Amino acid sequence: MKIADLEFGAYPVFLAPMEDVTDEAFRLLCKRFGADMVYTEFVSSDALIRDVNSTLRKLNIYEEERPVVIQIYGNEVEPMVEAAKRVEAARPDILDINFGCPVKKVARKGCGAGMLQNIPKLLEITRAVVDAVKIPVTVKTRLGWDENSKCIVELAEALQDCGIAALTVHGRTRAQMYTGDADWTLIGKIKENPRMRIPIIGNGDIKTPERAKVCFDKYGVDAVMVGRASFGQPWIFRDMKHYLLNGECATPFTFAECMQILREQVQQSVEWLGERPGILHVRRHLAATPFLKGLPDFRPMRIDMLRAEKLDQLLDIMSRIEQQYGG
User: Fold this and answer.
1) How many Cα atoms within 13 Å fall on the side-chain side of residue 76?
2) How far apart are CA 282 and CA 268, in angstroms?
3) What pLDDT digit, counting tens, does each position of 167-186 carry?
């Protein structure tokens, strides 16, 4: 599969862009475990052109994580064009436009998935951004605004006509947010459309290697994108790639190996962000990691782990967890 001049091997698996999740440290970790391409946190076009420091920081990318995508969002043409030019100067491999974020603070401003309520403007922005930069431009969006306005099959054609190099579709509407099951049937219909020439990347509920294989085989997508399933288990990319390429499950990491990876993630987060912000940032991964779920009498230790505010304290608790449950 190719996106513009970027070559990917069989069964590409990408790390989805997620706010407060896909910072440099986490992207590098997922890349190490087999993610074929990684995306930054989404970048506000308005904040970028105002030189907001926290937003400018999101443009930091590293050679080790390539190919890497910087994603922007906004609801006006000129700021999006200016932001796209600034992103191009940061030298990502791809620029992605976010027309899919469903969270209220983004969508209610007409940004992200909010743009699905104004398709002409969405296409105008896309066309202007494609024309403004030389790097490949892609789009990530949803099936539609709600159950009564699932426009993605027609929208995919229109976006292709704007000149995008690939399209990612999350199999939910904006109204669904992240509830219910992702519906991949319309993603499959996009792939069945003989007019579509660009790669289609499927997103939504890719939680296991087996599900990733089904999505490739049943719906014909060119790549899949993993989001929330990567929380607390960056090794999911290694497991998925092994299954997709070999047809069998990878040898699972031991409890001690998983704990060591999480410790490394904690330490990297603190190194990048500082002690307290880094610990707060990594808590969602510690809370979500699946290999700690179901441990007997684990609740008190889990509470201690998620309340820790000092690095030494947190690492000590993690060591005690390993001693008690690592067997």
Assistant:
1) 9
2) 10
3) 999 999 999 999 999 999 99
